[in-house]
Amino acid sequence: MNKKFKADAFLYILSAAALLTGIGCISAFSRISPVSSEPQSVVSVEPESRPVFSFAQPSMAEQSRAVSETPSSQAAASSVASQQSAWKDTVTGRGNHPGNTANDGLFAEWRDGVVIFANPNDDFRLYRLNRDGKAKKISDDTVYYLNVIGDWIYFSDVQQEGKLFRIRPDGTEKTLVCQDDCWWTNARDGWLYFNGDSANLHRVSLDGKQYQKLTEEKVTWVNIGEDGWVYVILSRENERICKFKLDGSGKTYLTEEMTRFLVYDSGWLYYINQSDGNTIYKISTDGSGRTKLTAGAADFINVRDGWVYYSNIQQGGALYKMKTDGSQNTRLTSDNAYYINICGGYIYYINESDRGYLYRIKPDGTGRAKVGS
Fold it and tell me: How much helix, strand and coil, in percent to the nearest 5, is found in the chain?
């Protein structure tokens, strides 16, 4: 098993044990409004023919982290040449939403309604979901922490010890960007920020030619706000929330309690407070307005368009939503929902109630369906 998933499993077991221990003394949730979630049609998956490429690990200087192109077959080279003028390369764009990245970045939006995702039904290999609801495999890479910038898909490759790569949406031009084991990767102004080797905050340019270590502190749950600050949890400093400027300076503490699962959205930070029974809290990015949102334990939080989505531990991991002020707490489905990602008008989650298969549901609780088989 890859060390990333070993670590995830270990941390989840620890947190689950802590939750179960405390559930007896946690007060009940506020009044719940259940939403019907009867299963609907299954979203189909069909194979896609694609060029086959061979990959040889390039050597890179420690500081330069220079990019090396992956050799490909003649068919792939021909395909790249014919599509080169159609690809859109850019250094702008967020790449993914912090809420998705907090949930292992399994989904990201491309363009024209196409969703790029790591398919848990196929060992988290790289797929795309077209607007017609058909999923097609892009490559056999096992991926997480997806970012889509222009017509490049950036991902950490489980089969390559978490190294950061990029690839075209048709599966061509796979390229090594960074040799670090990259976690919680966020994009901003031509850079990718992440928890890298030794768990410090690092950044690398989109083409891989520039690489910098930004902090000596050990960080987790990396988020980047529109305000130009990086928000993290300090793993060696009592799991406190802290912020840094994009160059690693300006270290500022925001909380004192032990936290995890940090999500930035619209000037606020949403997190699970381990010091208070793993309940959901929020705090403004200037450290003010600290507010408790739930009475009971939660996991896998995501935030979008004024709503917080989460797995309700007291209700067997059922998928819930509430307004960002804690009101209108509503059950969307009783499925035990892990790794909640939001893309293209749907909430995607791994359904532990159905052997870990991928499901999706609309934010209003309708349209629940299994994705693939």
Answer: 15, 45, 40
Element (H, E) at 98: helix 98-102
DSSP three-state, residue 28: coil
The answer to whether 324 and 282 are in contact (CB under 8 A) is yes
Name residue, tokens 């705090």: 283
Give, for 282, the enclosing helix (H) or strand (E).
strand 279-284
CA–CA separation, 25 vs 270, rounded Å?
23
DSSP, collapsed to helix, strand or coil, labels residue 25 as helix
**Residue pair 29/293 in contact by the 8 Å Cβ criterion:** no
What is the homologous superfamily of the domain 3-50+60-370 according to CATH?
TolB, C-terminal domain (2.120.10.30)
In angstroms, the CA 264 to CA 1 distance is 30
pTM value surpassing 0.85: no
CA distance 341 to 117: 10
pLDDT tens for residues 9-67?
Answer: 434 434 444 443 443 333 333 323 344 444 444 555 444 333 222 222 333 333 333 34
Band of pLDDT at residue 180, cut at 50, 70 and 90? very high
Judged by DSSP in three states, 368 sits in coil
Residue 352 CA to its chain's centroid (Å):
18
* Amino acid letter, 107: F
List own/partner pairs for 282-288 with CB under 8 A and 24 or more apart: 282/324, 283/241, 283/254, 283/255, 285/225, 285/227, 285/229, 285/231, 285/243, 285/254, 287/252, 287/253, 287/254, 287/255
Distinct helix (H) and strand (E) counts, the chain: 3, 27
217, containing H or E segment: strand 211-224
d(CA 256, CA 254): 7
Tens of pLDDT, residue by residue over 93-123, are 689 999 999 999 999 999 888 999 999 999 9
The Cα-based distances of 138 to 51, 119, 371, 372 in angstroms read 10, 11, 16, 15
Tokens of 363: 């934010």
Tell me which residue of 53, 51, 186, 47 sits closest to 119, measured CA to CA: 47
Ordered strands of the 279-284 beta sheet = 259-265, 268-273, 279-284, 291-292
